[in-house]
Design goal:
Radius of gyration: 24 Å
Structural class: mainly alpha
Shape: elongated
Number of helices: 11
């Protein structure tokens, strides 16, 4: 239900939601619909829960084994997804860098939503760009502001202009490094949630199989 609700919200707020993701061009968006995907997954999980409840209430072995099989398939898919994510994790940074750099070069200073988002991120995390201040070199913002970088890219921007020399001297780290630090702080929480979901799925499989065996013995 939570995923379905989130999907509905994303669909309703589609325009503003997608505007903060500048790297996703119309070509990408024509293949990816986050809102509909979330609604579909939420609906499937809700129906799956109802299937298990109906199978237990009606003492239907067919519904119970169907419920068990679907949960088993989901567990296998989750395990496969985890393995794939580990294998391709090394590509994540390069992909994100390509997306972020495109947005910073072409849209920062032009698109107000993207600009506000990056300004908030850079101010909160005390960082500059994705990798460093060089992400803004030859960008729209850089050219429109007298070949200067955003103030967050320099130390003491209220005293000195944030030009290339000042930005290089300041050595403000990129936001990706800061985001990785914040993410690592919460990795235990994410792992706990994943373990909890897996435990619930295994418990559901165990209960359904127990009821199935019980009904099989009862019928005998």
């Amino acid at each position: 239900m939570c995923m379905a609700t989130a999907g509905i919200w994303v669909t309703v707020m589609n325009d503003s939601f997608m505007e903060v993701l500048p790297p996703f061009t119309d070509q990408y968006l024509s293949h990816v619909n986050v809102g509909m995907f979330s609604i579909t997954i939420g609906a499937v999980m809700t129906l799956l829960g109802m299937l298990g409840c109906c199978g237990a209430q009606k003492e239907s072995k067919c519904l119970l084994i169907m419920f068990f099989s679907i949960i088993l398939i989901i567990c296998i898919a989750e395990a496969a997804a985890a393995i794939v994510s580990l294998v391709y994790s090394s590509y994540t940074e390069s992909i994100l860098r390509a997306w972020a750099t495109t947005g910073l070069k072409e849209q920062y200073g032009k698109d107000q939503i993207l600009t506000d988002l990056w300004n908030s991120t850079m101010t909160t995390l005390q960082c500059c760009g994705f990798s460093n201040y060089m992400d803004f070199s030859e960008s729209y913002y850089y050219k429109q502001n007298g070949f200067l970088y955003p103030p967050t890219c320099c130390v003491g921007p209220e005293l000195f202009t944030c030009d290339e020399d000042n930005a290089n001297f300041s050595s403000v780290v990129g936001c990706f490094k800061q985001i990785v630090k914040v993410t690592r702080r919460n990795v235990d929480i994410a792992g706990g949630i994943a373990a909890g979901v897996t435990a619930i799925e295994l418990a559901a499989m165990g209960v359904s199989m127990y009821l199935y065996c019980y009904l099989d013995k009862k019928a005998a």
